[in-house]
Structure to design on (180 residues):
């Protein structure tokens, strides 16, 4: 029986999330599985991944093959790195202390990259809100200036119109007689 570490789809039509499971390779995608190893939610930014590190590592060391997507997820979380380092211990190239030191260093660098991405995303969101506010303020000011200009043009015309009417009867134009 070939064991695969793969994704099992759950959720709504356009809001899928996945369970990471160890399953027989012959079983259907959403069918029976041996063990649930965690969850993966691609709808958040960055994607939310919760895995049982030890259980997943155990399955990999026992020969389970991850699918391409699961391999990327396991690599992101450092499980494949840990497996690689532990294989070096089996071959005699590394000691346990060296493995723990290298893995801790890798985790620190990974955490700093993730934090910088989150900070960048939050900064971009704040900048987008500020830019939107600035654009709305500029549009509001332009609209109020346009309305003020219309009001300024309409008021002098209204004052000039009665003066013209007052002068009209004072002209010496002969009145036409329309009686026939």
């Amino acid at each position: 029986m070939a064991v695969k570490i793969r994704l099992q789809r759950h959720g709504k039509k356009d809001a899928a999330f996945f369970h990471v499971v160890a399953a027989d390779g012959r079983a259907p995608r959403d069918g029976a599985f041996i063990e649930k190893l965690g969850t993966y939610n691609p709808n958040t930014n960055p994607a939310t991944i919760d895995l049982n590190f030890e259980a997943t590592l155990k399955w990999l060391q026992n020969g389970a093959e991850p699918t391409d997507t699961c391999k990327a997820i396991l690599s992101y979380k450092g499980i494949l790195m840990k497996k690689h380092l532990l294989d070096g211990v089996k071959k005699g190239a590394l000691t346990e202390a060296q493995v723990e030191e290298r893995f801790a260093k890798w985790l620190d660098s990974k955490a700093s990259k993730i934090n910088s991405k989150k900070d960048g995303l939050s900064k971009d969101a704040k900048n987008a809100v500020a830019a939107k506010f600035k654009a709305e303020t500029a549009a509001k000011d332009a609209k109020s200036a346009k309305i003020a200009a219309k009001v300024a043009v309409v008021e002098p015309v209204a004052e000039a119109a009665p003066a013209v009417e007052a002068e009209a009867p004072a002209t010496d134009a002969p009145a036409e007689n329309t009686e026939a």
Q: What stands out?
A: The radius of gyration is 37 Å.
